[in-house]
Design brief:
By secondary structure, the chain is of the alpha+beta class. It is built from eight helices and nine strands. The protein folds into two domains: about 60 residues, Arc Repressor Mutant, subunit A (Orthogonal Bundle); about 180 residues, 2-Layer Sandwich (Beta-Lactamase), CATH 3.30.450.40. The strands form two sheets. The protein has a six-stranded antiparallel sheet. It has a three-stranded antiparallel sheet with strand order 1-3-2.
Amino acid sequence: MVTPKKDVYYIEVVGKTLDVLEAFVQVPLRQRTLSELTLQLQMNKNAVFRILYSLASHGYITKDGSKYELGPKLVELSNARLRNTDLLSVASPVLQSLRDEFGETVNLGTLDGDLIRYIGVWESHDRLRLAERVGASDMLHSSALGKAYLAQLSPEEVRSLVGGRKLPALTTHTITSLSALKAELEKVRERGYAVDHEEGMIGAVCIASAILERPGKPVAALSISGPAVRVTTDRIVELGQAVKAAAAEIEKGTGGST
């Protein structure tokens, strides 16, 4: 039976939804009927049905006749978790070495919807430094990580991610039109790295390169970032080559494209 939670922050319907999902692994049966789940959970039959219907609508449950089973979306989430864990284990020593060599903050990010999400940050030891927190996100069009990732996608994929809405100007340097962004992505592809020169924040410069997996699709991007007073224009090419080399090393370690 589901145990009620008294915590003021607890959302009961979310808890019941998770109880339904967990019911599939608590009993060694691959497929379950609505009656079996209702009996096991000791919940209202209509409530269980509505939860199953909602989960099925999002791909977390599939229905075959009168029987339900765990859906492909859960496998997708599990694989993403494992992929990020494997990526971090391979990338960590490479990116820490990159941070130590250049003395600037190094970041690792993956696509999350229409944002780039930070999954790893190796902070500079300098008192004046840039440092995002793990779990934070940036817009694709205004960040080096985002542009490095976008540059490896097809025109259709780019349009689906950034083409349907206005590109907000975060600074006076931010790219705000799709045509200008496409031209910038072409430059990124030619040189192998993206540059955010005070596009996301005044005084901040970031250089990034995509990490590819077979068959050549981006799985993440890495960047090195620092204050504009240190990451000057004459250092960008050097840092660009460094992030490209780091990305290639990580790809080799994960079995991705080289």
